[in-house]
Write a structure and sequence with these properties.
Layout: H1 3-7, H2 17-23, H3 33-40, H4 50-54, H5 61-69, H6 73-83, H7 87-93, H8 105-110, H9 116-129, E1 144-148, H10 152-163, E2 167-171, H11 180-183, H12 194-202, E3 208-211, H13 222-228, E4 231-234, E5 240-241, E6 254-256, H14 257-266, E7 278-282, H15 286-297, E8 302-306, H16 318-326, E9 330-332, E10 335-342, E11 346-354, E12 360-368, E13 371-374, E14 378-379, E15 388-389, E16 392-393, E17 406-408, H17 420-439
Helix pairs in contact: 3-5, 3-9, 5-6, 5-9, 6-9, 7-9, 10-17, 14-15, 15-16
């Protein structure tokens, strides 16, 4: 960051050490044994459970909750992990309020669902704390698969392939594996370096060779992977960030929200991170909310999140919107950025109100801003990729792309929700299809 940014009010250390510790503590601390039993006792153990249908990874939720209720959380964890090997992270970051918990019979009848997400964390944490990996690797098949991208989709795919005896080489462009779990999620959702601990635990299956700092199109080519491996899975995510498309978009003080979150996640001391006095976040998804909330937790005086559509169209869940509001974030909807005002460094952002169809109303307003975070979507980067469907890789059954022998899943693939749990499911399903293709298994 340039020096004049500091003179504009973007400074580190706005709060006391005690405030930082409290602000970035665990959003939903783990249940203790008694709390878990009480929460599990509320489940009706429905035979035709709607919560299973609502889970993208099809976890048998009533079964694992019954296993907790009977005092066998390790068995509950195996039930979870057999469907979702990243059940620990998903328990922390899944929008359960719009998935399994939204359709819980208790929610429908009483407005208070069973705490499915917190019970899932209780079970998976119990197993991981015991140092147990619940799966064993099958005999080697002699088949070699390249998995590009060590995010949720790639890790899920790699684990399932390794479990079936295939040798997997896992490439990632960054210095550490984990993808968005490591670099793109709010710190208060995944404390104590959980993303890396989960990766290390997952790799205990064996048969996975991790190669970091390897970027597709620069350090490795798709053509070389095709010739050197029996199959390729692409879980490369979305590396590009959309610009505002306005004059002054390159002024000092304007940053991509994903970079802000990544820097925060990788720092050892949040007090060293500079934050503005007046922060504006542009966007309406989870990244926008995570950036806005964390800006407030770092000590920004005024944080405003501005989205071009109405609240009901925001990708961030109602829970996340309410969380932002509870932390002091102001949310303005139906407004589109029109101008960046400043002299080298941003000072204000001008917006215009729009109607529900994004038509301009002619009514404008300005917000003071010494720091602006763009969170208006990401785009696919990389050359020589399979055919696209819009801005993402086109996929058919189980992640098959237009090129034989290449599969794709996660945020880079068309069709799915941009959720960790969906990426895990797509990686798992692609792995099973790769396994069947290479071995003739059914």
């Amino acid at each position: 960051m340039k020096d004049n940014a500091y003179t504009a009010g973007i400074i580190p250390g706005r709060l006391s050490p005690e405030d930082y510790a409290e602000n970035f503590s665990d959003l939903h601390p783990r249940l203790d044994d008694h709390e878990a039993l009480v929460a599990a006792d509320r489940c009706y153990f429905c035979h035709d459970a709607p919560c299973i249908t609502a889970c993208p990874t099809d976890i048998d939720i009533p079964l694992f909750i019954r296993q907790i209720a009977t005092g066998t959380p390790e068995a509950a964890a195996r039930t979870i992990l057999s469907q979702n090997i990243m059940g620990g992270m998903c328990a922390r970051v899944c929008p359960t309020e719009t998935l399994c918990e939204e359709v819980c019979v208790r929610e429908v009848a009483e407005g208070k669902p069973v705490l499915i997400g917190q019970l899932q964390r209780y079970a998976t944490d119990t197993l991981m704390d015991a140092g147990v990996h619940p799966f064993t690797r099958a005999a080697s098949t002699g088949k070699r698969i390249a998995v590009v991208g060590a995010g949720p989709a790639g890790l899920s795919c790699a684990h399932r392939l390794a479990m079936h005896g295939h040798d997997v080489t896992l490439f990632d462009a960054r210095a550490k594996p984990g993808g968005l779990n490591e670099y793109g999620i709010a710190s208060y959702k995944t404390v104590d370096d959980f993303a890396q601990r989960e990766v290390e635990w997952l790799l205990q299956i064996g048969g996975i060779t991790l190669e970091t700092d390897k970027t597709l199109g620069l350090d490795v080519s798709l053509e070389s992977l095709q010739s050197g491996f029996d199959a390729v899975f692409l879980g490369i995510g979305l590396g590009g960030v959309n610009a505002l498309g306005l004059d002054g978009d390159d002024m000092d003080g304007l940053h991509d929200a994903v970079d802000f979150i990544a820097n925060l996640r990788q720092t050892s001391d949040v007090a060293t991170l500079p934050i503005g006095r007046d922060v504006v976040v542009i966007g309406g998804g989870m990244t926008a909310v995570d950036a806005a909330v964390q800006a407030k937790l770092l000590g920004a005086l005024n944080v405003t999140l501005v989205y071009r559509r109405g609240r009901d169209r925001m990708n961030a869940s109602v829970f996340e919107q309410d969380l932002a509001a509870s932390k002091g974030v102001r949310i303005i909807t139906n407004a589109t950025p029109r101008a960046v005002i400043g002299n080298g460094a941003v000072r204000e952002i001008e917006f215009e109100y729009t109607d529900d169809d994004l038509a301009p109303t002619g009514q404008t307003f300005r917000l003071a801003a010494d720091q602006v975070f763009r969170a208006i979507g990401q785009s696919l980067t990389g050359g020589s990729l399979p055919a696209l469907d819009g801005r993402k890789i086109a996929v058919s059954s189980a992640g098959r792309t237009s090129i034989s022998g290449i599969w794709a899943g996660g945020d880079c693939a068309a069709g799915g929700d941009d959720l960790t749990v969906t990426a895990v499911a797509e990686g798992r399903d692609a792995a099973m299809d790769i396994h069947a293709t290479l071995t003739g298994a059914t």
